[in-house]
Amino acid sequence: MLTIYHNPRCSKSRETLALLEARGLTPTIITYLTTPPSADELRVLKQKLGFASFRQMMRSKDELFKELGLQEPSVSEEQLLAQLVAHPALLERPLVVKGEQARLGRPPEQVLEIL
After folding, report:
1. Are 20 and 27 in contact (CB under 8 A)?
2. What are residue 4's phi and psi, to 5 degrees?
3. CATH number of the domain encompassing residue 39
4. I want to staple 16 with a disulfide (CB 3.0 to 4.6 A). Which of 74, 108, 112, 115 is the partner?
């Protein structure tokens, strides 16, 4: 099963979806701003991405990231996770999941590694 955590307003997200569709793939599309992932789902995504920190899954250049002080080293992993749950717009996009692997579509071609 192939899944994309998608934001239709994001050009990289649209490019990644188009890249998948051009290869004849029809991923399950999760519009994560309207159907946000739970804390448990985010934990699984982090593991599948192979990331050490939730911070790696976050839009660190986003104004909200800075306003919430999430760049501070003193912010714990549980605090980062809580902010991702509370503010799904902080999730870096797009995320593509296939089986036990996931990739961030920045650049979009990076998702090809798991296909």
Report:
1. yes
2. -125, 130
3. 3.40.30.10
4. 108
Structure tokens of 11? 């050009």
Burial-class residue 89 by CB neighbours within 10 Å (0-12, 13-18, 19+): middle
Residue 107: HSE in the Cβ half-sphere, 13 Å Cα cutoff: 1
| Residue 52 per-residue DSSP state | S
Peptide bond just before 8 cis, omega within 30 deg: no
- Which pTM does this prediction carry? 0.94
How do residues 35-55 score in pLDDT, each as one tens digit?
999 999 999 999 999 999 999
Please give the positions annotated as active site.
10
State the Cα–Cα distance between residues 67 and 77, nearest whole angstrom.
17
Look at residues 1, 5, 20 and name the one whose alpha carbon lies nearest to residue 92. Answer: 5
The number of domains in the chain is 1
- Residue 21 sits in which domain range? 2-114
Amino acid letter at 100?
A: E
Rg over alpha carbons for the chain, rounded to the nearest Å, is 14
